[in-house]
Specification:
This protein is an alpha/beta fold. The chain has helices at residues 20-29, 42-54, 74-83, 106-123, 135-148, 172-180, 198-205, 234-245, 249-264; strands at residues 4-6, 32-38, 58-62, 89-98, 127-132, 163-165, 183-187, 210-212. The protein has an eight-stranded parallel sheet with strand order 1-2-3-4-5-6-7-8, sandwiched between helices. It starts with a strand and ends with a helix.
Length: 268
């Protein structure tokens, strides 16, 4: 069986409140052995950690999503820094910019993003980045953080492990540029949508430099669109990418899982 790593699943969501043990069991049966739960605010940062203490193979990221930027303050960031020291916290996230909904003023989003990038560089942790209709500003802020902290998560490996642009919205050219800066890109169920631009990106850059995710309970892949997404469906993402790349599913699963383990420094 192919063995998968779902690098982005919000298992603290209310839609999992009544059947989380069954959701995790279905994921195990589908070959999903590892999952990362990225937080969206201080409350979900605590909840993500609690879940990692409850279940084997689960890891957390702590941080404030751009939607929640207006609610964040120094007290919140002080606690996030403390939480980031938990042994099962492997990243700062989900952080970034969202100019589609603009639930928080853009300048405040940028400020909060900067603060959390500084925390990531201080803690030498990778970041999980959300960027929607804001790629230019997102990359500019990230590039500035790298210039200020050039040794951020830089190891003797082939390139720095600085983070991942989740549910990647950009072009193949942008993906290559991000790679040179030490970032992976990841894809959820959008690769199963017929008119998704993600299909062209995967065709052009291949599967060797990407991660897989579900973004559960959102971004449900075909043939379950319209229903709640869950970690077991990451296998559908892997199968679709194997079709695009013309390789077997086990190869895609193995390579993307290894990528995730390298980025988040999770031992075999």
């Amino acid at each position: 069986m192919a063995t998968y790593f779902d690098t982005h699943t919000h298992l603290f969501d209310q839609t999992f409140q009544h059947d989380l043990p069954q959701v995790i069991e279905r994921a195990r049966r589908a070959g999903v052995e590892w999952m990362i739960i990225p937080a969206t605010d201080i409350k979900t940062s605590r909840e993500a950690i609690r879940l990692t203490e409850q279940y084997e193979g689960l890891y957390a990221a702590v941080g404030v999503h751009p939607h929640e930027a207006s609610k964040a303050n120094d007290i919140v960031f002080a606690e996030i820094e403390t939480l980031s020291q938990h042994p099962k916290v492997v990243a700062i996230g989900e952080i970034g910019l969202d100019y589609h909904y603009d639930f928080a003023p853009r300048e405040r989003q940028k400020e909060i993003f900067n603060i959390q990038l500084q925390l990531a560089t201080k803690r030498n942790l990778p970041v999980i980045i959300h960027s929607r209709e804001a790629m230019t500003d997102t990359r500019s802020i990230v590039d500035e953080a790298i210039q200020k902290s050039p040794t951020w998560n830089k190891t003797s490996d082939d390139f720095p492990k600085r983070g991942v642009f989740h549910c990647f919205p950009g072009t193949a050219g942008e993906a290559r540029e991000l790679r040179t800066s030490g970032f992976w890109i990841s894809f959820p169920g959008i690769v199963t949508f017929k008119k998704s631009s993600a299909l062209d990106v995967v065709k052009e850059i291949g599967y060797e430099k990407i991660l897989l995710e579900t973004d559960a309970p959102y971004m449900t892949p075909v043939p379950f669109r319209g229903k709640r997404n869950e970690p077991s469906y990451v296998a559908l993402v892997g199968k679709k990418i194997s079709e695009i790349a013309g390789v077997d599913e086990e190869t895609v699963a193995a390579v993307t899982t290894n990528n995730a383990k390298r980025l988040f420094e999770i031992a075999p």
